[in-house]
Amino acid sequence: MTSKIKVDNIENQCGGAVVTKCGATTTISGSVVKADDIQAADGGNIINQCGTTITLGASGDTINLASGASQTGFGRTGTVDWITTPKTATFSAVSGNGYFCNTSGGAFTVNLPAGSAGAIVSVADYAATWQTNNLTVSPNGSEKIGSINGNVVLSTEGQSVTFVYVDSTQGWINTMDSTSNVRAEAFISATGGTETTCGNCKIHTFTGPGTFCVSSLACAPANNQVSYMVVAGGGGGGACGGGGGGAGGFREDKSPVTPYTASPLEGAGTISVTATGFPITVGAAGAGACKPNGVGSTGSNSVFSTITSAGGGGGGKFNGSGTIVPGDKGQPGGSGGGSGGIGPTSVNPGGSGNTPPVSPSQGNNGGPGQHIGGCTMSSGGGGGATAAGAIGTQQSPGPGSSTGGAGGNGATTSISGSPTAYAGGGGGAGFENASGCGPGGTGGGGTGGGRAAAASSGGTTNTGGGGGGGAHPGGGVNGGSAGGSGIVIIRYKFQ
Prior knowledge:
Blueprint: E1 9-11, E2 17-22, E3 25-28, E4 37-39, E5 45-50, E6 53-56, E7 81-87, E8 91-92, E9 97-101, E10 108-111, E11 120-125, E12 135-138, E13 152-154, E14 160-167, E15 171-178, E16 189-191, E17 194-198, E18 201-206, E19 210-216, E20 225-231, E21 250-253, E22 271-272, E23 277-281, E24 302-304, E25 307-309, E26 347-348, E27 369-373, E28 376-378, E29 393-394, E30 402-403, E31 411-413, E32 420-422, E33 487-493
Parallel strand pairs: 7-9, 8-10, 9-11, 10-12
Antiparallel strand pairs: 1-2, 2-3, 4-5, 5-6, 11-14, 12-13, 14-15, 16-19, 17-18, 18-33, 19-23, 20-21, 20-22, 20-33, 23-24, 24-25, 26-27, 27-28, 29-30, 31-32
């Protein structure tokens, strides 16, 4: 049973009123009421003192300051209430608040409030864009920031700053300046071609036309630089004692954030992508010349962004007149085509490589065709990415037999994740024996033909290799072979 004690007045031992009730009014006198605990009706603590520690409320309680009430004595000690809706334009700050400032749409200004001792304002870089679009902090009127009446420009990516007003001499003082806020680093996100990964790098391989679509960029500008390799289509081999086709132009650049072993030709020029689509052109192979006589076709260009690799030059045809005819010799291109054999005593220069000229060179000259003696002619090999095509030689025992010139070697790179050679020149044709076929250069160059027995072979698909030159007239296999189609590979850091 619950007992109740009902009184209108409580007095102390001296007869002084402690609590007095009169009508609807209850008065607590100026006397001191002493207790270690004040509890609610459910027994939970409202105020508790243990030693010198006073606790307001109990676990699970919420302590509210009544609307319209003010507080003193609980002053802020370097903390703010953060406003979680980002600011995107110039605004006036309120003391006690922190603001996330998003300058991705452009720079703007934060106006500090009138200073009073202990006032505090914080700002933080919401989108990690202050380096590009600065945030300006402006004092109120003639007040100061760090003893100077002037604006402060915040220009560090990911920065957060807290200002506390001290006095009229120093004004607002920066009490905390941090650039170590933890955020997931953004990387390039893109689609297109055949996608593979190698460590922290993504690789896009285009073996035909397509689009490299960049949907988002990295926060750090360095991570927007991509590595690439652009190889054009290889030239076709000439017919009937024809020269080997020149390799498609080879161009490569290695970004410092995408480690791999690049070719010696690396350094074609930096490309930092933007969030857009980049059309990719993969050069087609040049056709081999048809018998009985003809010059191989030049390969087509490959293109990525500002980089164009030129198609390989077609191989030249046999010329028995001894008079050099420009249209009969190896054609110019990324790498030049080899020239066909010529009689009776002339040497026919191969086609020029690195056409049009770029630095580093995208290819080399084709090998010359020549007359060796008697009725023996030899054809030059097509130029490759790292070496010129070779001139043909006398085959022992002669006369009447020769070896076609070897195609120039291509370039080896690991941009795809494993070392692979590209852009080898096609071999020149031999005059008689099958054993006189000129070998293709490393990187997909086709083999030259040999009279009566051995047909030439084409450049390997998607290597930009040149096609082999067709055998000397007299056999049934004297047509030149097509080059190999080109390829484009793009590599970047994605995680």
